[in-house]
Amino acid sequence: MRIAVISDIHSNIQALRSTLAVIDASNVQEIYCLGDTVGYGANPNECVELLRQRSTHVVRGNHDHAILEEATAKYFSRAGRTASEWTRSALTKENRDFLGSLPLRVDTEVCTIAHACPFRPEEWEYVLSLEIAERQFSAFKTPVCFIGHTHIPVVCGEDLLTFSFGKDMRFLVNVGSVGQPRDGNPESSFGLLDTDTWEYENKRVAYDIAGAAEAIKNAGLPDILAKRLFEGV
User: How far does the chain reach from its first CA to its final CA, in angstroms?
Assistant: First the structure.
């Protein structure tokens, strides 16, 4: 089976559609979404509705949670708070209810998925060091755990010395961001796992960045949210 793992779409419908087109051409059987479907971008309803149609599993991200619990947004940047308020008013009740129904993590036979991390996922901790990564392995028992949140793709083995995916140990894998990459590469990022060959690949997808940026500006959202898409930061 081939599983596509996507995360941090952030209301970027242009990036999501282009990513799904690549997924559709990759003989994928299931799509897992690691959350933050909304926030920052200008098309929250379109992104939520498309994911509801296409995803096998979806978990809740902190920007999704901020739609339900406004206090969560106090930790965001000023532009992030503005976008969260705008998104809250723009979402339909049906799509808000869908975000509210999402779990914080899902465990399948093959993998664990969570937005920020499997260890206390409700705290939305950023896995940005080996020390933080180490304690995540105590929180899942599957061969691999997929996360997002940092918007930076990374593979980390349980020995904390292996950074390419393999069969000999468990792995923590950050699939990067579909809608707002932050690793200096503006192309959409997602993960592709083949459970038969046990191979993992990080995929990058070009998309209409100018269109996504224009939609942000037309919605009256902060210009920085449009500018950063071109820079991948």
Answer: 33
Nearest to 87, CA basis, from 48, 38, 51, 54: 38
Placement of tokens 């705290």 in the chain: 123
Name all domains of the chain by residue range, CATH numbers in brackets.
2-231 (3.60.21.10)
Prediction pTM value: 0.96
Nearest residue to 101 (alpha-carbon basis) of 150, 139, 68, 142: 68
Beta strand segments in the chain, E = 2-6, 30-33, 57-58, 105-107, 111-114, 144-147, 154-157, 171-174, 188-194, 199-205
DSSP state of 146: E
Q: Classify 2 as helix, strand or coil.
A: strand
In angstroms, the Cα distances linking 28 to 4, 59, 194, 195, 229 are: 6, 19, 9, 11, 27
Distance in angstroms (rounded) separating the CA atoms of residues 178 and 218 = 21
DSSP 160: S
Quick: pLDDT tens for 191-228: 999 999 999 999 999 999 999 999 999 999 999 999 99
